[in-house]
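Issue: copy button drops trailing tokens. Both records pasted manually instead:
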Amino acid sequence: MRFEPGYLFGMALQTVPEPRKVARDLFDLNLPREVLWTALMLVVVLNAGLGVIAGMMFPLDPRQMGTVLASPVLLGMVEAAFMFGLSWAIYLIGRMFGGQGSLSDAIITVVWMEAIFLALQALTLILTFFAPSLAAITMVASVFLFFWILSHFVTESHGFNSAGLVFTAILGFMIIAVFALSFILILLGVEPVQITPPN
């Protein structure tokens, strides 16, 4: 594997048809844990930076978003905690169900997944000005790609047989996590967005 923009872009495209092959190539790198955590922090910073740009282009009402989502610094800290927790969850939950994956594999999964998701977010932001409908499609497709990559990478990392069963388990844990996160955000002062029906 070469750390060159063209090569990495090709691997990103290959992740869609052959996610488990890309996962094996990434896991076989055996990168030091310090490098992996640094890469994770890098995607967090880039994600927060993109959030700042999006907020400048499409400002939201801070009174509705709350103090956390209205602050890029606090939002970045929440995203960092989420990615850190997701890495440990992939490792520990997979092990709990008999998987053989390592924490390094879990971190690589989160970093690669977030890097691709970040690129799609940037593309969505650009398309918003020229093709809003295509931007909406890209946004929906990025969600499906998120679960596609996560399911196959976890399957490959832990040596499971069925990516479908892994996806079902991930979906169940995600639903629980969403309810828990919603409760935490309410405690932090984030109010639900109220949609006013047209007159």
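Record 2 (pasted manually too):
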Amino acid sequence: MSLLTRFTAALALLASPALAQSSPTPALTASALAVGSVAPAFKGQDAAGRPVELRQLLKKGPVVLYFYRGQWCPYCNKELSQLQDSLQVLTAKGAQVVVVTPETPANIGQTVAKTKASFPIVHDRDLTIMKAYKTAFVVDDATATKYLGYGIDLKKANGLDQNILPVPATYVIGRDGTIRFAYFNPDYRQRVSVRQVARAL
């Protein structure tokens, strides 16, 4: 069994960490935003330092917003690779793809190298976007310790003083600023397909 296979199998054992069990910050309890609700405005910078602002993007067309955990997560790498391979399916419908992550810019660079991502990836430095979309949660201590055992230091990976991750959610935001489609599953092994997203556009 290869190292990647063993690592992936180990991650699978941690598939459903309790959301914010040991968190002193109740605001970081993750929950899905409702279809039909107004998408929270956000702005940030992609890995190249270019501005990314929802309001400006919506002037051009609908926005598909993804959240991912980090370059260390094989499920995230697989999802982003598949997204890159099928990106034209979404852009052909006028959609713009934006990806948000808590990981540091250096780690975003590793994600790009692994997935060949050409879409903007925003470093959510202060967790502002993740909090607004209620994807952020504090990983419980037992799970964080297990991750450390596999060489994953979440605090170091994200440049934070807490072990915080996003639920890898996906939202389709219409040009009117409302959420037209939402995929939110705390089991990080389960991801939405590009085909499902395309049907929502």
